[in-house]
Amino acid sequence: MRIKSLFLIVSVFLISNSAVSAVSIIPSPPTVDAKSYLLMDHDSQQLLVSREIDMKLPPASLTKIMTVYVAAYELAQGNISLDDETVISEKAWKMAGSRMFIEVNDKVMVRDLLRGIIIQSGNDASVAIAEHVSGDEAIFAQLMNQHAKRLGMKNSHFTNSTGLPHDNHYTTARDVAILASALIRDFPELYAIHAEKQFSYNDIKQNNRNRLLWLDESVDGIKTGHTEEAGYCLVTSAIRENMRMISVVFGSSGDNARTKANQFLLNYGFRFFETTKIYSRNENIYTADIWKGKSDNIHLGLGKDLYVTIPRGQADKLDTVFEVQEFIIAPVEQGSNLGHMSLILDDKKIVDKPLIAIQTVTEGGFFKRIKDELHLMIVR
Questions:
Q1: Which of 276, 217, 268, 275 is nearest to 247 (CA)?
Q2: Catalytic amino acids?
Q3: CA distance 301 to 284
Q4: Which of 29, 30, 135, 303 has minimal CB crowding within 10 Å?
Q5: Residue range(s) occupied by CATH 2.60.410.10 in the chain
Q6: The pTM is what?
Q7: Separation of alpha carbons 47 and 68, rounded Å
Q8: pLDDT per residue as tens, the chain (380 positions)
């Protein structure tokens, strides 16, 4: 079938459709005690629950997720090392609020400072890391904002590494979910520290402030936050049945409230939804004809792995639609956009992705090009 003479449209059932497939009954998402909250699947990036997720709010110590992300990036680039020793400045030592209890002029390894940030939520450790990476916390904040822009955090701005209140220091639930997912994806070894329940430094043992680490064995992170202005905030992530969820809560009324809110959101997501990998990056999912090339066909696929999160029991209703450029002419470079792939559930488009060439096809010889040109004159 032609669509305005430009596209060939093909519908393919991913799993055979069944007339007797069970109807999935899903209750309304839970309403929780918070100004802003969401639940997102990590692999598919689909939002399952959301409320006021683009409201700009003070993040308190959720800021430290970005502080850790920047430090992890610098580690990966080889600019700093876990074994580096940082001389603690007076500014870092004097930081108010939650602390690791490092002393001025002490030499502290980066690996310990990171645990002081992640587990103990130390403002002193955050400033020490910022100064070690950039020499100055204000310059470090510039790095934070550059990473926020790169990750697609469109409504965030950071002025410090700690999350202490500042009029121009803000983010959103959506942006924090993007950041948390990026940390899990990009730096899994460093993310694993978020599951540690205790850390001792300077003979002072402190517990991880994320109470869900004790209450739910599927939870492995990630960060609490609290100031008078921000209220009680919490980002959590958990894995059940090979499915990872991320929940974000801003502005709860108390520690118990934020803990319960995240638990409700996680339980709702895991109970009523499932995530499936549909296609792998650069997998050949469609073979199209190509004209005037050394080959008569070209393989098409996706630039990234594709996951989809759908209500449990609805997989048999899921199908895919390919919209492919009808006349593809060589040469075509790998990565060229040649159409779209959509996933449909109950007549609703839930995913739409560019369909790209996963191989390069060069021009054919002179006689092949002439033959195909004559053929095209007939079929066009």
A1: 268
A2: 61, 64, 121
A3: 5
A4: 135
A5: 2-20+280-379
A6: 0.90
A7: 24
A8: 223 334 556 555 554 444 444 556 789 998 899 999 999 999 999 999 999 999 999 999 999 999 999 999 999 999 999 999 999 999 999 999 999 999 999 999 999 999 999 999 999 999 999 999 999 999 999 999 999 999 999 999 999 999 999 999 999 999 999 999 999 999 999 999 999 999 999 899 999 999 999 999 999 999 999 999 999 999 999 999 999 999 999 999 999 999 999 999 999 999 999 999 999 999 999 999 999 999 999 999 999 999 999 999 998 899 999 999 999 999 999 999 999 999 999 999 999 999 999 999 999 999 889 888 888 889 87
What residue ranges of the chain are covered by domains with CATH 3.40.710.10? 36-273
Of 3.30.465.10, 3.30.1390.20, 1.10.3720.10, 2.60.410.10, the CATH number of 2-20+280-379 is 2.60.410.10
Token pair of 137, please? 């916390």
Specify whether the CB–CB gap between 305 and 345 falls below 8 A: no
The Cα–Cα gap between 373 and 2 comes to 20
Topology of 36-273 in CATH?
A: Beta-lactamase (3.40.710)
